[in-house]
Amino acid sequence: MIQTVLDNLRIKTLNEMQEAALKAFLKYNDLVLLSPTGSGKTLGFLLPILKTLDASKQEVQAMVIAPSRELALQIEQVFKQMGTGFKVTCCYGGHLVKTEENNLTETPALIIGTPGRLGFHIRKQNFNPATVQTLVLDEFDKALEFGFQDDMAFIIERLKGLKKRVLTSATQSIQIPSFTGIENPFRIDFLKEELPERLKFKAIYSSENDKLEALVKLVSTIGNKAILVFCNHRDAVERISEILKRQGVIHDTFHGKMEQQDRERTLIKLRNGSNQLLISTDLASRGLDIPEIEYVIHYQLPTNENAFVHRNGRTARMHADGTAYFILREDEDLPAYVAEKPEFEQLPDEVELPESTQWETMYISGGKKEKINKFDIVGLLLQKGGLQKEELGRIEVLDHISYAAIKREKLKATIQKLKGEKLKKSAVKFDVAR
Questions:
Q1: 168-215 tens-digit pLDDT
Q2: pLDDT tens, 111-147?
Q3: CATH fold for the domain made of 2-189
Q4: What is the Cα–Cα distance from 411 to 421, expressed in whole angstroms?
């Protein structure tokens, strides 16, 4: 079974952490899995869950609670790609309740969701929580940070048939509340105290208090590379974004107050190469399916060491090199937890703004619920849209929306050619994803 899953995921072998998690899960009832962001924790607990599922049972057998919609969707996507044959349902705020209720009428073996939405479905008796035997609390420290204690306590109290509990975290110093029911867990610890060896630290000084001029110069100097700029508050993200727009710097934003559809579109554009500059709060520091980031910029200094580690964890991953920049006011000192002294750089007086990426994203108003898949979209874009294979990039199909990366110079002409065309006999709209 495991080999089939690995083949479906196009993975040759499990890594050391995943092997250890699989063995421990089968031996212990309570497990704490500590491993860095990007190390494969999702597969580390989904494979053990798969071992417990019984195809003869028409009931919810396992539950994964995630602190964010993006993480919940990412876990669901991995499980579907595993090709297990078991039904999975994902529930989260911002998703249509009616759609989720319809999905729950045919009981899934695995339910994944955010605490608030899972609690809602339990209160509405849309599924029976008493049949759940395995519970995973993913990125548990983040869930506590987001204030989900009451929701999680409510859910766990109703999991009367619970036999196994798994708690995952990318943070070492985590306190386990009594409501989890976890008392003496077996711990698997793959966290390293030190930051990645391939991560370089650099710093620049800003003569201005708001640091915006320095940020534009730094981004322009780096050029057309994957860059993640971190701020401490969403107001700062929006303020920076407005100024970058006026200066013609292509970018996207990401924070907790954005609508779910906007957040999904932002991450899709980052994954498919339409955008390589993201301005974000610490929400983007972990638990998201985003590509390797070459540069992290601390526009505002992180509020604590954990935030610092998780931000930097977005780069220098999987043996790749990475650089973390600090933008400092002349009167601003680095926090004590920054052990390695950064190399200071002098920015040029004159810079040219980064060029546009080669890709742009097409919006398509139809998805899985309209029985549309990637092959349908590829066929339409090549045959009716007149594109060559090399002019078509990554395609992602959601419930009622799809996105396709197309060479920037071809997108508008392709949209014109597709006016009035249908997908799976459905009338759909084609437009530029804003």
A1: 988 776 789 999 999 889 999 988 644 455 788 999 999 877 799 999
A2: 999 999 999 999 999 999 999 999 999 999 888 878 8
A3: Rossmann fold (3.40.50)
A4: 16
**CB hemisphere CA count around 63 (13 angstroms):** 32
Instruction: Retrieve residue 122's tokens.
Output: 């339990």
Looking up tokens 């097409």, which residue turns up?
Answer: 362
**Range 121-130 contact pairs with CB under 8 angstroms and sequence separation of 24 or more:** 121/91, 122/154, 122/155, 122/158, 126/100, 126/101, 127/60, 128/59, 128/60, 129/60, 129/63, 129/155, 129/158, 129/159, 129/160, 130/158, 130/159, 130/160, 130/161
Nearby residues of 16 by Cβ (< 8 Å), 6 or more positions away: 190
Domain residue limits, the chain: 2-189, 199-344, 359-432
Please state, in angstroms and rounded to a whole number, the distance separating the CA atoms of residues 383 and 349. 49
Model pLDDT for residues 215-230, shown as the tens digit of each residue: 999 999 998 899 999 9
Cα–Cα distance, 148 to 145 (Å, whole number): 8
- Domain 199-344, CATH class in plain words: alpha beta
The CA distance from 423 to 16, in Å, is 44
| Domain spanning 359-432: CATH 3.30.70.330 | yes
Could you tell me which residues are beta bridge partners of residue 137? Answer: 65, 167
Q: CA 94 to CA 260: how far, in whole Å?
A: 6
Question: Per-residue b/e over 256-283, b at no fewer than 16 CB within 10 Å?
Answer: eebeeeebbbbbbbbbbbbbbbbbbbbb
Q: What secondary structure does DSSP assign to 39-50, as a single string?
A: S-HHHHHHHHHH
